[in-house]
Amino acid sequence: MGYFLRRLYWRCIWSWAGTRDAWIHEHSFRSWVWANLVSAAAALWLLEGGERALILALGVLVLAAEALNTGLECVVDLVSEEKSELARRAKDAGSAGVALTAIAAGLAWLAVLFGYAERRGGLARSGRRPRQSPPALGLGLHRPDPALRRRR
Fold first, then answer.
1. DSSP 8-state symbol, 127
2. Could you report the per-residue pLDDT of 33-80, keeping only the tens digit for each?
3. C-alpha span between 42 and 44 (Å, rounded)
4. Where are the domains of the chain?
5. Residue 46 — left, alpha, or beta (φ > 0 → left; ψ -120 to 50 → alpha)?
6. Taking the domain 27-121, which CATH number applies?
7. What is the pTM of this model?
8. How far apart are CA 149 and CA 90, in angstroms?
9. Separation of alpha carbons 93 and 142, rounded Å
């Protein structure tokens, strides 16, 4: 157990050092941190439960993708400072990973906000009545219409 805790301790130290280095040396990492702080504040204020967890988790994934992209760019620059087609493709692929995770986070925000607006009645469907659940096929599970109840 002591070995596990010692290794866990050092993993936390190394991870924090990597996060600190990304903050110090990468402008785009700092930009994503600030964007995620705004997103997290909005999620904590506006959302509940699973929606909040989804937005917060996707924000962390954007930061993880940016950290991996930073590491990839550092390794490519370490190997060679020369312009190379393979180096360009590697860096572009890392950047695409960050962009795709950011798009996923943006799409999640849109889905959550449209769902919220729909539940609040803000997105009226042209002339349609609100959706109602179908009857339970005679299994006695549906609620009877209150207008049809006998008065006592």
1. T
2. 999 999 999 999 999 899 999 999 999 999 999 999 999 999 999 998
3. 6
4. 27-121
5. alpha
6. 1.10.287.3610
7. 0.74
8. 70
9. 53
